[in-house]
TrEMBL record:
Belongs to the 'phage' integrase family. Residues 104-283 form the Tyr recombinase domain. Keywords: DNA integration, DNA recombination, DNA-binding. It comes from the Bacteria. InterPro entries: CB, DNA_brk_join_enz, Integrase-like_cat_sf, Integrase_catalytic, Integrase_recombinase_N, Integrase_SAM-like_N, Tyrosine_recombinase_XerCD. It comes from Ideonella lacteola. This is Site-specific integrase. Residues 6-87 form the Core-binding (CB) domain.
Length: 292
């Protein structure tokens, strides 16, 4: 094993400190560092020597090499932090604009497919975790970081600490989800996997939570076992949760709160995939009298 420690340049160290001062999430910090590293590799010199023309050519290079719109925009965001905050040269990024993302609709399971997927999970821990993802509409990271004390059976709510946007919120806890959590807790506690006040879904090391990657792998395995051909992730269960609530006539503003969305516009995407609502609409052709 190579134990050599890579030397961190003063410029990179300053950027790391700038990100730490603002308490950016670790994954965000990694993404920003990756963006500056891409620019450095393109320039073949220190990124603080970049000019407006260099940055323009770099964006053209990303486009020409087939970089996806999401990755391209993420790279620009990281560079904007570097030039605006670390270097104090915001003018260099003034003409760099993000590209428009294609608007897509999420993959959604039917209620029968969601139930089959959860039932096909290989063990009771995964079944309980997927039940929370679908039954409460939580993100994968939010499911993984639940602790035993976050289950409030008196108020029938799940406390989500520091979800997306570093915000706390409460999610719904249905009787069925509570029953499955209790079943998992009894087994996990008896096996020494769930510690008092510990993670509700621990990983192989009980001191660490199940990772989002491990949970997604469990979803893929369950989808394959259930014979579901759709491209499914843990987030698909969250999409399905919101869509099925909308189809049951739950107010979209209530769904917005349950999902923890900041903007109603984000939640409104589910109106495009709520097929039960579409079936209730009487098309204009249906009202045209048949030709004699």
């Amino acid at each position: 094993m190579d134990t050599t420690t890579r030397k961190v340049s003063p410029l990179r160290q300053r950027m790391i400190e700038d990100m730490r001062m603002r308490k950016l999430e670790p994954r965000t910090q990694e993404g920003y560092i990756r963006a500056v590293r891409k620019l450095t590799e393109y320039l073949k010199r220190s990124p603080d020597t970049a000019t407006v023309e260099d940055l323009r050519n770099f964006q053209l290079h990303l486009v020409d090499t087939g970089t996806s719109p999401i990755t391209l925009n993420a790279t620009l965001t990281g560079l904007r932090f570097f030039f605006d905050i670390t270097l104090g040269r915001a003018e260099l990024m003034a003409r760099m604009q993000p590209v428009k993302l294609p608007r897509t609709v999420p993959v959604v399971l039917s209620m029968q497919e969601a139930a089959a997927l959860i039932a096909a999970a290989r063990n009771i821990k995964h079944q309980a975790a997927l039940s929370v993802a679908y039954g409460a509409g939580l993100r994968a990271s939010e499911v993984c970081r639940l602790k035993v004390g976050d289950v409030d059976s008196e108020r029938m709510a799940l406390r989500v600490e520091q979800g997306k946007g570093a915000k706390d919120r409460y999610a719904m806890l249905s009787p069925v989800v509570l029953q499955r959590l209790r079943a998992w807790w009894r087994i996990g506690h008896a096996q020494g996997k769930i510690l008092p006040g510990g993670w509700l879904f621990p990983g192989l090391d009980v001191m660490e939570p199940l990772s989002a990657r491990q949970l997604n792998r469990a979803v893929h395995d369950a989808a394959a076992a259930a014979g579901i051909a759709k491209r499914v992730t843990t987030h698909t269960l969250r999409h399905s949760f919101a869509t099925h609530l909308l189809e049951r006539k739950v107010d979209i503003r209530v769904i917005q709160v349950l999902l923890g969305h900041k903007k109603l516009e984000t939640t409104s995407i589910y109106a495009h995939v709520a097929t039960d609502l579409l079936r209730e609409v009487l098309g204009p052709l249906e009202q045209v009298p048949p030709s004699s």
